[in-house]
Design goal:
single chain, 430 residues, alpha/beta, Aspartate Aminotransferase, domain 1, Aspartate Aminotransferase, domain 2, 2 domains, seven-stranded mixed β-sheet, four-stranded mixed β-sheet, binds ligand KE4
Length: 430
């Protein structure tokens, strides 16, 4: 594929921006080579600046469940922009988007809009600490909740020891109150509460993990999360930035029948524009300024354009739910990928919840970070480029989930499986 224009633009990008990107996930560090520069998206497709077309499975890392440049979303944003893009004052559109969220997400009684998933998780953690008067936060290895200082933490020496910074610029003070446990490890969670129960303000968890690739929680783990937080007076935070409106209209919590105390949202809730949200039990949310004392603010929070995109997206997901079609398309893709990997003799497992899934280059089921870390990331990198050079744009890391949109067709899925068959043959033989 000719990508000369892409290379030219990216060379300039690297002079202007660190790594040439505005988010490291896009820098292709995990797969090598240079990021592809894109010009346009429409439905299930992306076109790069050299005019090459790709079937897209990143969907902007999740938001585009209805496809790129979905006409009702584009029209809603165009219409809203004619009335002004931001007032820094209340608008009815914020009521409409918050109404949709409260109606959709079982545990959310009241909600606050912000501008990103990171802002949502950062605010939810501050609220959990403000509400409980406690300091410690539990998170899980392989779970990503945005670039929040207190969550950019490496695991301590043992499951029940507090974390240490894993990024320059994060101080010991910011990380000393964070406990890193293993996902799906009930005993570890019990030990942490036994050792620190009276100090734990909250537990934040991806109820289906996307950020070490797709990892599904066990029933026991979900039940332990809810029981142990309740018993110890800690706040259970479901980070549904990725799973919200993705795995079901009501998110993972509606699939699993678990009610967290707080939920964070992002991605789909903004329909591709910058919206994050955190919400939950009214008795907790009333502690947020100006009703309560927990400070959180934002110039562009709830701005009319982002709300318009979110409203158009959630309204369509509510009124014409694509979830059955997404299930059929996603199952077709999953079955095809597994068959192709089997034929190519490539060690693999596949994990899927609805229209988010991951083909792992490992023969061992991925249940947590230690098992995820066993994947053959070199084989993955070869697979990634084998697909990209056949017009399929896959998440550029083994430790990301892929997404199917309602704009994908059976033909797209079958074309993807054929490309995967050839790419896997390349991945296994080189
Ligand atoms: P943002 O601040 O990127 O909107 O959201 C942070 C975040 C929070 N929680 C979960 C479960 C998330 O997956 C994310 C962001 N996801 C990554 C990709 N897995 C976004 C891609 C990027 O960082 O560029």
């Amino acid at each position: 594929m000719n990508r000369s224009r892409s290379r030219e633009i990216f060379a300039r990008a690297k002079q202007l921006m660190p790594g040439g990107v505005n988010s490291p996930a896009r820098a292709f560090a995990a797969v090598g080579g240079e990021p592809i520069v894109f010009a346009r998206g429409q439905g299930a497709y992306l076109w790069d600046v050299d005019g090459n077309r790709y079937i897209d499975y990143i969907c902007s890392w999740g938001p585009h469940i209805l496809g790129h440049a979905h006409p009702p979303v584009v029209e809603a944003v165009e219409r809203a922009s004619r009335n002004g893009t931001s007032f820094g004052a209340p608008t009815e559109a914020e009521n409409t988007l918050c109404e949709l969220i409260v109606d959709a997400v079982p545990s959310v009684e009241r909600v606050r809009l912000v501008n990103s998933g990171t802002e949502a998780t950062m605010s939810a953690i501050r609220l959990a600490r403000g509400y409980t008067g406690r300091d410690a936060i539990v998170k899980f290895a392989g779970n990503y909740h945005g670039h929040v200082d207190s969550l950019l933490v490496a695991a301590g020496s043992s499951a029940a020891t507090l974390g240490v910074p894993n990024s320059p610029g994060v101080t010991a003070g910011a990380s000393q109150d964070t406990l890193i446990l293993q996902y799906n490890d009930v005993a570890g969670l019990e030990a942490a509460f036994a050792a620190h129960g009276e100090r734990i303000a909250g537990v934040i968890v991806e109820p289906v993990v996307g950020n070490m690739g797709t990892v599904v929680p066990t029933r026991e783990f979900l039940s332990a999360l809810r029981t142990l937080t309740e018993r110890n007076g800690a706040v259970l935070i479901f980070d549904e930035v990725m799973t919200g409106f993705r795995v079901a209209y009501g998110g993972a919590q509606s699939l699993f029948g678990i009610r967290p105390d707080l939920t964070t949202l992002g991605k789909i809730v903004g329909g591709g524009l910058p919206v994050g949200a955190y919400g939950g039990r009214a008795e907790i949310m009333k502690h947020v300024l100006p009703e309560g004392k927990v400070f959180q603010a934002g110039t562009l929070s709830g701005n009319p354009l982002a709300c318009a995109a979110g409203i158009a997206t959630l309204s369509e997901l509510r009124d014409d739910p694509p979830y059955e079609r997404l299930e059929q398309l996603s199952r077709r893709l999953a079955v095809g990928l597994v068959a192709a990997a089997g034929r190519a003799g490539v060690e693999h497992t596949l994990a899927r919840v609805g229209s988010m899934m991951t083909l792992f280059f490992s023969g061992e089921p991925v249940r947590n970070w230690p098992t995820a870390a066993k994947c053959d990331t070199q084989a993955f990198a070869r697979f990634f480029w084998g697909l990209a050079n056949r017009g399929v744009y896959w998440p550029c890391s083994q430790f990301e989930a892929l997404f199917v949109s309602a704009a994908h067709t059976e033909a797209d899925i079958d074309e993807t499986i054929s490309a995967a068959q050839e790419a896997l043959a390349g991945a296994s033989h080189r």
